[in-house]
Amino acid sequence: MHSRTVTGAAPAPAPENSTNLVNAASADATGLSASRKDGRDKADVKSEKELDKERKKADKNAKFQAKKKAQPGPPGSAGNKKDKNDKKDKKDQKDKDEGVLPAYVEETAKGDKKMLKSLDDPYHKAYMRAVVESAWYDWWEKEGFFKPEFTQDGEPKAKGTFVIPIPPPNVTGKLHCGHALATSLQDLLVRWHRTQGYTTLYLPGCDHAAIPTQAVVEKMLWRQEKKTRHDLGRPKFLETTLAWVDEYKGNITAVLKRLGGSFDWTRKAFTMMNFSTAVIKVFVCMRQSYL
C-alpha cells in the first residue's frame, strides 16, 4: 500500500460554511452548551444557594433604606432641631411637674452617726451620691475605726501587723485618676487584713517635693504677678511657698477622705519634718570642729 503526500495549501471552505463557523464560535467557543446554560443562546441558570444569597442581600438593603429614612436629618436640619426642641420641652415639663430639688443639705451634726430617712423622702427616691455618702466619713474618723487595734498589753494582735504607708502625693498639684486607683487597691488590702484580725495601719501623708514645688511656685508667681523669686526676696518667697503647700495639702487630704480611704489621720505625715534648727546646729558644731 503506497502513501501519498499532499502538498500545498488546504482548500478554502465554501462561503456559507465560513459564516456558520464564525457564528457558532461567537455563540459558544466549544460548539456545545456552556456551563450554567440551558443550551445555546439561553439565559444563565443560578443555583439555589446563589438565589438565597441575592434574596438576603435585597432584604438587608431594604432594611437599611428604611432605617435611613427613619433617622433624623443631619445636624442643623429642621427635623433634627425639632426633635431636640421636643425633647427639651418634655424634660422642662417633667421637671416642672415633679419639682427640681434644691441642693442637698446634710442635717446630721459633724461627727455624729448619719440620720437615715424614709425612702419616701424626695432625696432618697433615687440614688444620689451626695446624699448617700455625706456624714459617714466624719463619724468613722471620730469613732477611730481606722486606728490600729492592739491587745490589752499594747501589743499587736496575734495574727500580726499589716501596714501600708501611702506613696505620698507631691504637693505640686492635685490628685488624679492614678491616685484614686492606687488608693482603692491599697485600701482594699488594708480593710481585708483588718477583718482577718490583723493590727492594721493605712498611713496618710504628703511629699514636699522640694525642687519641683519651688518650680511650680515660681511659674505661678510669673503667671500671676510677672515676678521672680529674686523680686520677692527669700523670706517672702518662703512664705508664698509654704502657703502653696498648705493649700495643696488641704486639697489632697480632702480628696483622700472623699475616696473613703481607711487612713489613720492622727498619724498624718509630711516628708519635710521640722528639723531645720537641729540640722543647722549640728552643721555649725561640725564646722567649728573643722569636721
UniProtKB/TrEMBL annotation:
Keyword ATP-binding set for record: yes
Single biological process term from Gene Ontology: valyl-tRNA aminoacylation
InterPro entries, per the entry: aa-tRNA-synth_I_CS, aa-tRNA-synth_Ia, Rossmann-like_a/b/a_fold, Valyl-tRNA_ligase
Annotated region described as Disordered, given as residue ranges: 1-105
Molecular function, one GO term: valine-tRNA ligase activity
Domain Aminoacyl-tRNA synthetase class Ia: 136-287
Keywords, sorted A to Z: Aminoacyl-tRNA synthetase, ATP-binding, Ligase, Nucleotide-binding, Protein biosynthesis
EC number: 6.1.1.9
Biased composition (Basic and acidic residues): 35-62, 80-99
Keyword Membrane (UniProt): no
Pfam family, one: tRNA-synt_1
Similarity field: Belongs to the class-I aminoacyl-tRNA synthetase family.
Listed name of the protein: valine--tRNA ligase
